[in-house]
């Protein structure tokens, strides 16, 4: 049985569902913003909210209640040394903790507005999403690889059936046409980049 046409159809179906859900999400966000502010929808502002880095992970807003997880601040400055604390200590501009505060842009600054250098090693939203993506990629690839070994020659099943169309798409429609016989060498790298970007895109939050 030739599985390639079936897999291609399944892949296109997945892409279509993701596209429709994305458009629906954007429409809901646009309508919600317009209802709250009374202003026309600005796509640039919405995109910035999704991709901007932050010291907390904001999930949703229900009325005036914000659902978010504060992340650790790890900073070093001459004279004060290393400091570690949660972002909730300086979440609002004007809040002061151990001589530090935050600006309206969310940047950690000296409470006395000193220009002294601050070395910021904080675990931000982007860092957390990348760490989660790496963990998920390891779990996905190792699980699928074990399934292939255990079910060699059999039709894909479970997580394997979801990932295989994506792997074949990158291999047949990207790697082979662009790299020819060299695709075997670079396919692991292309798959890693593709899944890393895709998973991180799924974690885009306001």
Tally of DSSP helical segments = 5
The protein's oligomeric status is: single chain
Biggest sheet character? 3 strands, antiparallel
Helix content: 40-55%
H/E element order: HHEEEEEEEHHH
Biggest sheet strand order reads: 4-3-7
Radius of gyration: 23 Å
Specify the structural class: alpha+beta
Number of DSSP-assigned strands: 7
Distance between the termini: 45 Å
User: What percent of residues are in strands?
Assistant: 15-25%
Task: Write down the overall geometry.
Answer: elongated
What count of domains describes the coordinates?
Answer: 3
The unreliable regions are 1-9, 21-32
The pLDDT mean sits at 75
Helix-strand blueprint:
Elements: H1 4-37, H2 43-51, E1 56-62, E2 65-70, E3 72-77, E4 81-86, E5 100-102, E6 108-110, E7 119-120, H3 125-150, H4 159-179, H5 183-202
Antiparallel strand pairs: 1-2, 3-4, 3-7, 5-6
Helix pairs in contact: 1-4, 3-5, 4-5
Quick tags:
206 residues; two-stranded antiparallel sheet; disordered N terminus; 5 helices; 3 domains; 7 strands; three-stranded antiparallel β-sheet; alpha+beta; single chain
Describe this structure in words.
This protein has helices at 4-37, 43-51, 125-150, 159-179, 183-202, and strands spanning 56-62, 65-70, 72-77, 81-86, 100-102, 108-110, 119-120. With 206 residues, the chain is of the alpha+beta class. It has three domains: 4-53, no CATH class; 72-120, no CATH class; 125-202, no CATH class. A three-stranded antiparallel sheet has the order 4-3-7, with no helix packed on it. A two-stranded antiparallel ribbon has the order 1-2. A hairpin with a 5-residue loop joins strand 5 and strand 6. It is elongated and about 65 Å long. The chain starts with a helix and ends with a helix.
């Amino acid at each position: 049985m030739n599985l390639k046409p079936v897999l291609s159809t399944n892949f296109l179906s997945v892409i279509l569902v993701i596209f429709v859900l994305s458009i629906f999400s954007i429409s809901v966000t646009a309508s919600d913003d317009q209802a709250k502010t009374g202003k026309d929808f600005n796509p640039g502002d919405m995109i910035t909210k999704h991709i901007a880095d932050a010291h907390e992970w904001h999930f949703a807003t229900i009325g005036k209640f914000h659902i978010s997880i504060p992340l650790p601040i790890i900073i070093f400055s001459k004279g004060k040394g290393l400091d570690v604390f949660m972002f909730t200590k300086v979440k609002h501009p004007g809040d002061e903790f151990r001589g530090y505060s935050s600006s309206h842009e969310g940047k950690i600054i000296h409470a006395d507005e000193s220009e002294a250098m601050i070395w910021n090693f904080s675990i931000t939203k982007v860092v957390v999403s990348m760490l989660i993506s790496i963990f998920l990629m390891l779990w996905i690839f190792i699980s699928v690889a074990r399934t292939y070994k255990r079910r060699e020659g059999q039709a894909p099943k479970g997580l394997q059936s979801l990932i295989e169309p994506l792997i074949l798409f990158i291999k047949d429609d990207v790697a082979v046409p662009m790299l020819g016989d060299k695709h075997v060498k670079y396919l692991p790298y292309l798959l890693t980049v593709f899944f890393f970007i895709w998973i991180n895109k799924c974690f885009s939050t306001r």
